[in-house]
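Exam review. A common question shows you a sequence with its structure tokens and asks you to describe the fold in words. Practice with the pair below. Do the first one on your own.
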Amino acid sequence: MHEQLKLDNQICFRLYAASRLVTQAYRLLLEPLGLTYPQYLVMMVLWERDNQLVSDITHRLMLDTNTVTPLLQRMEREGLVVRTRGIADGRQTLVSLTHKGKRLEDKAQNVPTCMVQNLLGDGDIGGYASLVENLDTLIGNLKKTL
């Protein structure tokens, strides 16, 4: 067998496994809030800056419109967001938080701290900063190739 084809020699497998485990860890933290992980990502984008175009949300999350639109539809049915047609361009859709969506921000404030603890265990915060930097570099490099 070729050494480079062994599963243990694949960075892609480690990234895949880490991604799945991170999502599972988030699920445990987000369930009490009534959010899925993708909904949480949308909420963070809107908590950062409310009243955004769907195209801006999809760009920020690096997702396709056909992935985000059904997600926003569910979130609207759940009373977290409101979607309205753009005034200048009726083809655009503006997404805004409802009062329920805004109140959820306070309930979610400890999620990032819990996740950092899950990721680091007893490690030091410098390792976290280094991990973030390395992942940002990896994401940037991959975006250039796609």
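Now try the second one, then compare your answer with the model answer below.
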Amino acid sequence: MTWQEFIDQELKKTYFQQLITFLKEEDKKHLVLPPKESRMACFKLTPFQEVKVVIIGQDPYHNLGQAHGLSFSVEKGDYPPSLKNIYQELTTDLDLPYPKTGNLIAWAKQGVLLLNSVLTVVAHEPMSHQNQGWEIFTLEALKMLNEKEQPLVFILWGAHAQKFIPYINTNRHYVIKSPHPSPLSAHRGFFGSRPFSKTNQFLISKGIEPINWNLS
């Protein structure tokens, strides 16, 4: 199975047809982010067969020039607060220099699927596209990942991402969970959780090449 085959399969389902209709109307009325060509970017950059790690976000950044189809990643410009906290944990965990970019494409190209559970948002209106069908799509993608024989690492930050745990075979795959890196919750256990070193330790233990997390 490839991501394109998966998307083609979902396209035939009623919920996805309704989602497409909804998005066409939203695109007429509002500025929807990310741009159309970037909405499936995580699948294009991280082919199904190459996925090693899954990081699940909530919905895209809603400020202009940020969202480009990868969870927690910004195309250019300032780092949002959650990304700053992710970088603080990254530099502490792996003793790396502070990243010079907020763009996480380098991770995606190594097999880190940066998946939001909702893939679009109206500019300046967080969670404006929830409960329109994206969550069904994301869950179906996650179920497909769960069937992979190669062990994966699922990094689940916050209660929203952790709702997916019942759909993950934890005997085969490794789940890393902690509070969300948002400034509201990072101090409740995100800092010090060491997700990056834990991920690489697991991958190495399974004979899988680890991720080079260095973005400097």
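Model answer, second protein: The mean pLDDT is 97. Residues 56 and 115 are 5 Å apart (CA to CA). Full marks require stating both points clearly.
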